[in-house]
Write a structure and sequence with these properties.
By secondary structure, the chain is mostly helical. The chain is built from five helices and three strands. It has one domain.
Amino acid sequence: MVLLAGLFAWGIYRRIRRNIGRQKLRPRRIIVSMVILSVLSAFILSTALIQPVLGLAFGAGVLAGAALALLGLRHTKFETTTEGHFYTPNTYIGLGLSVLFLGRMMYRFYVLQGLTAGATAPAAFQSPLTLLILGLTVGYYLAYYIGLFVHTHDRQPDPTP
């Protein structure tokens, strides 16, 4: 249990760290992230087919997240130097989304843990609001990574140091 909590905390730290300060554009990392998010989305949608409202909530979240990513890309600062491609993401959008997602997960697990053993506990991701927020997060990062990937291929380093 401690190991799982440690891995979860480390993942949150990494996610928040990527929303602060100048970052190097790494096309391979972006591709891996896009593949993982796409597989995660397909898995969630396939399991949400049992209850269509869950699939609709996730889909609405993905669409809203993609729209938010366009805003985030518009407020991202890109630099191309002889050292490579860099970007500075909008801190407020990324952190706000991370806090919203983390807050919902903590609330959901708190509620589920508070149920007595005799009560029928719903599954952790069987709430439309939880799937909406998860879809918002997945849609944002998937669209944002696509925008970053496209940006890596349309700029050449400046020849001046």
